[in-house]
Design goal:
About 30% of the residues lie in helices and about 15% in strands. By secondary structure, the protein is α/β, with parallel strands linked by helices. Helix 9 links the parallel strand 7 and strand 8. The longest helix is centred in the C-terminal third of the chain and has 12 residues.
């Protein structure tokens, strides 16, 4: 399956649009569902030419499954305020604005990210490991219940070494790991484990954009540090099937989202009352 296949999909318009900041890309699109909120961060190797439009069918399908779904837009490489650290602080600010804009709480919120969005979702869930003054570390940080990484770029140093998308990691951070070691330490999810949130990693073994070894490496590192991490490798599955709600992989993605929400401490709804 190609990107063109994903771009050919159509979705119903979002039910609501909010702005979490003053920048042109500080936009949240929402599809109404249940009391549990899935916050979706799109991929595209952090590049300006790929925006949230390709993730809308996936978001609408999640909402049809009973999740209030929020698509996060952010400044990307090639745009003013994109790259380091603006791309990171944008996503962090979006998540921190959710209680005010959406009414979500830790027990009812899971991050879902695809490809580069998987990197940003994992990084956002791991901000408790960042030092004071690090990017995306405000005084009032919002926690999330779990995070689902779909074919995520989980190891930036390895991604740079593999030259993913002809230098995408280099463009994101502005240089190589040997010259920017402190920056990579702050930006790389695999160097921030463990997370307080459950991390569920889903990856196709036929992915030709982001190798499955990225998720395997992160999973092993998280477990070694005592983290709550799960790995689902899907046989015969490529990169884009994971965000195509018409593909066979979508059932596995839904299972991953349920697994993230089922981490210890989740408050299931009672009767007509929402979990708090």
């Amino acid at each position: 399956m190609s990107l063109a296949n994903v771009l050919s999909l159509r979705a119903r318009p979002a039910d609501r649009i909010e702005h979490y900041g003053t920048g042109s890309e500080h936009v949240l699109e929402m599809w109404h569902g249940g009391e549990k909120t899935a916050v979706v961060v799109h991929g595209g190797f952090w590049a300006a030419e790929y925006d949230r439009s390709h993730i809308r069918p996936f978001c609408a399908a999640l909402a049809d499954q009973g999740y209030t779904t929020v698509a996060v837009e952010y400044h990307r490489v090639g745009q003013h305020a994109g790259g380091w650290p603006g791309t990171f602080t944008d996503v962090a600010a979006a998540v921190d604005a959710l209680p005010r804009l959406v009414g979500s709480r830790r027990e009812t919120t899971v991050l879902v990210g695809h490809s580069a969005g998987g990197h940003l979702a994992l990084w956002t869930a791991l901000r408790d490991q960042l030092p004071d003054g690090g990017p995306g570390v405000p005084g009032n940080r919002t926690e999330v219940k779990g995070v689902v990484s779909l074919a995520g770029v989980c190891d930036l140093v390895d991604g740079h070494r593999r030259n993913l998308d002809d230098g995408a990691v280099h463009r994101l951070l502005g240089g190589p790991p040997d010259g920017l070691s402190a920056r990579y330490r702050l930006a790389d999810p695999i160097r921030l484990v463990p997370s307080a949130a459950r991390c569920v990693l889903v990856h196709g073994d036929q992915d030709d954009r982001v190798p499955v070894s990225q998720s395997v490496r992160f999973h092993a590192a998280a477990l070694a540090q005592g983290g709550d991490a799960r790995l689902m490798i899907l046989p015969g599955t490529g990169h884009f099937e994971l965000i195509d709600p018409t593909s066979a992989a979508f059932d596995a993605v839904l299972d991953a989202v349920r697994t993230a929400f089922s981490a210890p401490g989740y408050l299931a709804p009672t009767g007509s009352e929402s979990a708090k």
